Amino acid sequence: MKTTVILTATLAMAVTLSSCWGNKKKAKAEEVTGDNVVTIFNGENFDGWRGYNRADMPAKWTIDEGAIKFNGGGMGEGQANDGGDIIFATPFKNFKFTFEWKVAKGANSGVFFYAKEVPGEPIYISSPEYQILDNANHPDAKLGVNGNRQSASLYDMLPANPQNSKPFDEWNTGGIMVYQGTVVHYQNEEPVVEYHLWTPEWAALLEKSKFSSTNPHWPMAFDLLNNLGKDENGELVGGYIGLQDHGNDVWFRNLKVEIMD
To answer: Which long-range contacts (CB under 8 A, 24 or more apart) does 181-186 make?
Structure first.
């Protein structure tokens, strides 16, 4: 399909920035491939990407044969200064995000959406996590409830069903569709999780998770997640797509966003 290079202004017509994201540099999409599909990683450089709550790109994220790679140090979440989560720094509202992923043996990572940068706080207090995991070898696969920490699950809340991930070192396809509050996770071409933001059921899920209103470790998390993607006036502004540094080797490629506004 013919590819047309676009300017930042073109993408700005499809997504809206809220003032809460401050003055950090806005991302520039590389290309549109038709049908409102934006390629957010070109396989060659990190144009449009930066670290969460920082202006630069953490050095542990590199490009490996056309894929984004996090180079783990075996320390789990004990992140070094040259690591950390990353975001594509243009927010999206209604969209379908598709990607491919693979992990090294025993590796853990995640994909975030509707993320908001909160100074001094981790990305996951404001963003649901699509879990990325080697289910066979990482202990998190056996924790949580009914497999809700296995790959493609809504982390710590809803398990992926069917659980159809491939073994470590093999590429999986993934996807997250967000449309007017309905969210669907995909794994290897199948829908595996569905939930609905801003509903009593969504609030109940949060209350049963580590992001509950009674968790003293993250007092902001419940309110941020319960009002996901909205500004202080309750208007939908969307949020960032993010990739997690969990200290292990992980790869992502073919990252595309179909804009559905």
So the answer is: 183/128, 183/154, 185/130, 185/152, 185/153, 185/154, 185/160, 186/98, 186/152
Contact 225, 57 (CB under 8 A): no
**Contact (CB, 8 A) for 227 and 220:** no
Question: Which CATH number characterizes residue 238's domain?
Answer: 2.60.120.560
Q: Is the dihedral of CA 41, 46, 51, 54 positive or negative?
A: negative
Indicate the number of domains in the chain. Answer: 1
Of the candidates 2, 41, 1, 87, the residue with the CA atom closest to the CA atom of residue 254: 41
Residue-level pLDDT at 25: 41
222 contacts 213 by C-beta, under 8 angstroms: yes
CB 154 within 8 A of CB 193: yes
Handedness of CA 181, 98, 184, 71 (dihedral sign): negative
For residue 88, list its beta bridge partners.
49, 241
Q: What range does the domain containing 238 cover?
A: 4-259
Query: 129-150 pLDDT, tens per residue?
Result: 999 999 999 999 999 999 999 9
- What would the 3-class secondary structure string for 5-74 be? ECCHHHHHHHCCCCHHHCCCCCCCCCEECCCCEEECCCCCCCCCEEECCCCCCCCCEEEECCEEEECCCC
Taking the CB of residue 136, how many other CB atoms lie within 10 A of it?
A: 11
pLDDT tens per residue, range 22-60: 444 444 445 556 679 999 999 999 999 999 999 999 999
The pair of structure tokens assigned to 247 is 């200290």
SS3 215: coil
Give the strand pairing for 172-179 and 95-103. Answer: antiparallel
Joined tokens for residue 209: 């998770």
